[in-house]
Amino acid sequence: MHNGSPLSWLGVFIHRLVLRPLLKLLFGVSVDGREHLASLDQFILVANHNSHLDVFMLFQLLNARQLRNTHPVAAYDYFCRSKLLLWLVTFLFHPVWVTRGERKRSPLAGMRRHLQQGHSLIVFPEGSRGQAGEIATFKTGVGQLATEFPGVPVLPVYLSGPERALPKDSPVPVPLWNRLTVAPPLLLSGSRQQITATLERRLRDLAASQAVARHRRGTNVSVAPLVAVVGIDGSGKSSLARELSQRLSEHGRVCLITDDIAFYDGGEREAAQQLLKEHLREAIGRRAKSADSLRSYKIPKLTELLLRDHIVRDVRRWYAPDLIVMDGAPLINVSAWCRIYKGEAFDEEICASALRVLTGTDVDETDGLYQTLPELATLKRLHLAHLELPAATLFIDVDPAISLARIEARGVTRQVHETHEKLGKLREGYRLVCGVVAGELHRPTCRLDGDRPLREVTDTAITELQRMLANEIDDGVIHEPPQGAKA
């Protein structure tokens, strides 16, 4: 037994210069999401398992450094039946051997030792090769490892093709194309049962996404609509976004993007699934919150908003929810803040042009837009002016005095813009932007009275969302709740 030693450089040479080209030639290998693995020094790779080709395919993903320190978990009782096979597998992969059914020693002991040494693992949580195209119930060992090593990212990978290229009961491989889908790495929290269930669901989601992709080529693809809840600090937008996500999840899977990412299904919140990109966004967001002037606040806040917009695309690509609810909206937030920085110069005409630039539409550079907002030219030059226009926007309108009272009740240090004057200007900005979004860009926007209790606001918001997302709203008008409705 190799006892956790790295793969030899000869083994690395054979994988990269012999096995890798041979597998591509015989079977063909395409990879979606390789970038999620490239920069990781340590990880737990979790994959479905239908074929002996699976490990060979997964080793296609690894660079030279990762090849040396990544170990698949393999059943010793299966491979020891042939001394030659046992030697070959040990030489090529340096696996973590486990003996199924052995009670004297925990099957996780070797995995723990490798992770403690800074090595990475390839785990097949189904335990053994299953039926072709099916994912069996995961064993909880992978959830236990994730709880014991919370700083090691877990990387879900779905393999499609090996189950046909080399089926479980076939000794002869068939030259068929194979595809590997690498999802974003996750840092998971919760019990081992919750984490295991989350990972199983992720693999099933990836499998479903691949099945849909194979059947929808050349057809129009529907994507989860984005619902934005916007308003000044202290308006209650975070609370409303959470309430909406929970209640709307009774009809489908909802992703909530706020200070973190959460998923709701059937009214219940799923175990936390933290994207590594979220840590960068959170760090930049903390920097913005600690700024001591509007000047030092602007750049980190803009960066945080751009990252949040990018996360929307990641969520759609890798998690395929039915609906996305966001606390705020990068496009609307950025535009509304112009009212603070540019004052009355940011009028309806400039706002409409700015929104078109920020959504990727060309605007005549001879007008006064770029003189008023020179930052837009920079964003356009850096190819960052492609923010998403929400399918529906809920604007919680609240008096700044009420907002400040709520902020004070939290007992936290105020941010630099949390004054009556600046929140008043920001409120004007949201009113202006939402009006332009409805009137010029023809996207439904609803104003809610944020002075009312959260339950009443939520009831009205759900009613209005059903109308807006069903296109039951007149274009060009910010929809106001009917007279006498709870808002």
Verbal overview:
The chain folds into two domains: 9-216, Glycerol-3-phosphate (1)-acyltransferase (3-Layer(aba) Sandwich), CATH 3.40.1130.10; 226-469, P-loop containing nucleotide triphosphate hydrolases (Rossmann fold). Helix 14 crosses helix 19 (420-439) and helix 18 packs across helix 19 (420-439). 47% of the residues lie in helices and 15% in strands. The longest helix is centred in the middle third of the chain and has 26 residues, at 294-319. With 487 residues, the chain is an alpha/beta fold. The strands form three sheets. The protein has a seven-stranded mixed β-sheet, with helices on both faces. A seven-stranded mixed β-sheet has the order 12-11-10-14-9-15-16, sandwiched between helices. Strands 8-13 form a two-stranded antiparallel sheet.
Write the layout of secondary structure elements.
Blueprint: H1 9-26, E1 29-32, H2 35-38, E2 44-47, H3 53-59, H4 64-68, E3 70-75, H5 76-79, H6 83-93, E4 96-98, H7 109-116, E5 120-123, H8 141-148, E6 154-160, H9 162-165, E7 178-182, E8 186-188, H10 192-216, E9 226-230, H11 237-248, E10 254-257, E11 261-265, E12 268-269, E13 273-275, H12 276-289, H13 294-319, E14 323-327, H14 330-342, H15 348-358, H16 369-372, H17 374-381, E15 392-397, H18 400-410, H19 420-439, E16 445-449, H20 454-469
